[in-house]
């Protein structure tokens, strides 16, 4: 529990850090001079810290103070002691649900009710409430398997795969994605949506070549082919415009004579984005740029779709991919330049919390590439405010936090995160 000052006073968590330093100094029966001597600093420095005149903005200094005062850094930072954050329990229950090949024991549910539950599960994932979703998924998997609706089964397996990848269970995530592919059957759009999950799971296992090979064929089936190098030269400078631009990229334009719905373009565009990230992971940076450019063309003409397949695809998603591709090829300066522009766009705030949180952790890595510790700390703190589970439940975020926290001097902004994930114990 939080300690409070007498009769309804201010919580100790609400006190400035200097006041907490003063309180613990008095509890340890130290004068300001004694504390200063042990810190090898002046009494004036201690006095200014306690009065808030001097800001404690270096984590290394906070650690030093905490050591002398014999408390954890989180105590000086006003954080409650807690068990270090870790992935939520319950993955074994999901594994057991995936391992059930017999008819599930769950009673059949009306399709509308099951569709509502699947929609709630998607929202839970997109809000990054991973602990809650871990508890829900075993029963939802049983219910979806009993219903035998390809659409709902594909969506349930995709949610499961995405969550497992987040929790560091990429192999199991690939299994769930593969189940989604099998459940899709001959439905090309469902199979393409399932392939998004396959690509994400393979990328999480650092199998980018396999991911690229899986992602491109369904994207090419859903979308118009990319212009060939000679397309813009057909007809010469005075030739017919339609001859020079033979590929119609408008939403609804047919591929092989078939009209397309916006949802198909969103799935196809997402496949291109994932393929671009896989190409960057393979070191095929020119190809990654080509794929993001192609995805941008799709996104620029996409308007007003209901995102039934939960892709979050659009112009901002493509711009975020450009940032990550630039960072992958080692051009962190270009990545951060693009980042500063894209987060000011209105569409940024419309992306799911999970999407933004995961992206910001990657941006923190880009800041580290250029040695900007404060920028990395700021990105991590922002990610935690948007989607705490992205920072506290994922090993990738923990690694980035550790890199920032052990730097000298470490920004104070990352101290709270370091304690939450157990790095300052």
From TrEMBL:
UniProt xrefs under SMART domains: HTH_XRE
GO molecular function: DNA binding
One Pfam family per UniProt: HTH_31
Cross-referenced CDD domains: HTH_XRE (cd00093)
SUPFAM superfamilies: lambda repressor-like DNA-binding domains
InterPro entries assigned to the protein according to its UniProt record, in alphabetical order: Cro/C1-type_HTH, Lambda_DNA-bd_dom_sf
Region spans: Disordered: 220-259
Residues in HTH cro/C1-type domain copies: 21-76
Descriptive protein name: Helix-turn-helix protein
Taxonomic lineage from the root: Bacteria, Bacillati, Actinomycetota, Actinomycetes, Micromonosporales
């Amino acid at each position: 529990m939080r300690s409070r000052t007498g009769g309804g006073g201010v919580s100790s968590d609400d006190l400035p850090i200097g006041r907490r330093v003063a309180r613990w100094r008095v509890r340890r029966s130290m004068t300001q001079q004694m504390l200063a001597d042990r810190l090898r600093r002046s009494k004036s420095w201690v006095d200014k810290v306690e009065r808030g005149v001097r800001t404690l903005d270096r984590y290394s200094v906070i650690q030093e103070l905490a050591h002398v005062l014999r408390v954890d850094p989180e105590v000086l930072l006003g954080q409650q002691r807690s068990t270090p954050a870790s992935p939520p329990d319950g993955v074994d229950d999901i594994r057991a649900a995936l391992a059930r090949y017999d008819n599930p024991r769950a009673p059949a549910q009306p399709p509308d009710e099951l569709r509502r539950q699947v929609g709630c599960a998607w929202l839970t994932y997109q809000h990054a409430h991973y602990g809650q979703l871990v508890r829900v998924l075993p029963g939802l998997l049983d219910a979806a398997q009993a219903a035998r609706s390809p659409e709902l089964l594909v969506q349930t397996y995709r949610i499961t795969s995405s969550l497992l990848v987040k929790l560091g269970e990429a192999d199991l995530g690939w299994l769930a994605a593969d189940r989604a592919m099998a459940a899709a059957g001959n439905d090309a759009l469902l199979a393409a949506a399932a392939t998004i999950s396959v690509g994400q799971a393979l990328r999480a296992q650092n199998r980018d070549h396999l991911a690229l090979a899986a992602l491109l064929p369904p994207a090419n089936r859903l979308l118009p082919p990319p212009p060939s190098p000679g397309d813009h030269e057909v007809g010469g400078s005075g030739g017919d415009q339609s001859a020079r631009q033979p590929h119609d990229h408008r939403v609804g334009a047919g591929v092989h004579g078939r009209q397309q719905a916006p949802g198909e373009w969103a799935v196809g565009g997402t496949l291109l984005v994932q393929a671009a990230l896989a190409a960057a992971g393979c070191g095929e940076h020119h190809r990654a740029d080509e794929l993001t450019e192609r995805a941008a063309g799709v996104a620029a003409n996409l308007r007003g779709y209901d995102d039934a397949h939960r892709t979050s695809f659009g112009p901002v998603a493509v711009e975020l991919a450009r940032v990550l591709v630039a960072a992958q090829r080692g051009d962190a300066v270009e990545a951060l330049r693009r980042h500063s522009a894209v987060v000011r766009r209105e569409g940024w705030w419309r992306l799911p919390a999970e999407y933004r949180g995961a992206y910001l952790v990657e941006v923190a890595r880009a800041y580290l590439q250029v040695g900007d510790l404060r920028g990395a700390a700021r990105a991590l703190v922002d990610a935690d405010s948007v989607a705490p589970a992205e920072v506290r439940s994922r090993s990738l975020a923990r690694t980035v936090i550790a890199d920032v926290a052990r730097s000298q001097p470490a920004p104070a902004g990352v101290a709270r995160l370091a304690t939450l994930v157990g790095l300052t114990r």
